[in-house]
Amino acid sequence: MKIDPAAQRYYENLARARGGTVTYAKPMEAVNEPTTERVARDGPRRSKKAPPNHAYFLAMCEANGIPKPTPEFLFAPPRRWRFDFCWQASMLYLEVDGGVWTQGHHSRGQGIIDDQEKQNAATCLGWVGLRCTPEGIEDGSIFSTIRKALDMLEAAP
Predict the structure, then answer these.
(1) Burial of 92 (0-12, 13-18, 19+ CB in 10 A)
(2) DSSP label at 22?
(3) More confident residue, 40 or 20
(4) CB contact at 8 A, 22 and 10
């Protein structure tokens, strides 16, 4: 992937205005390349898979014959709770729980309590929820479950 030429010119002009020159740690073509390497908060660098993004999930839904969901749907105003993805017509939502192996928000005490509060509120409003990890999206295992849930909800009176 190449960097946007306008952005490159902007940063070069900014550096010149400050009396310096532009030096790149790696070739400009590689600056915006997606990477799976992340820096740990504490400790040495380690390789981790980056979580799937919304565009990837939407493309996988289309490839699996699943209707396009709404990403980041705000479901309980004035609370700022959002579903990662939802199918509004069917009242189905999907939460993607990242960081379950690295003590992320979804696997710590307060995070679990927060998730329970959000899920209970959604259930009381009539929503049906599914949960998965990013690996469930990457390996495709969640899509058959979404399809079954949508079929079940559409068949319900």
Answers:
(1) buried
(2) -
(3) 20
(4) no
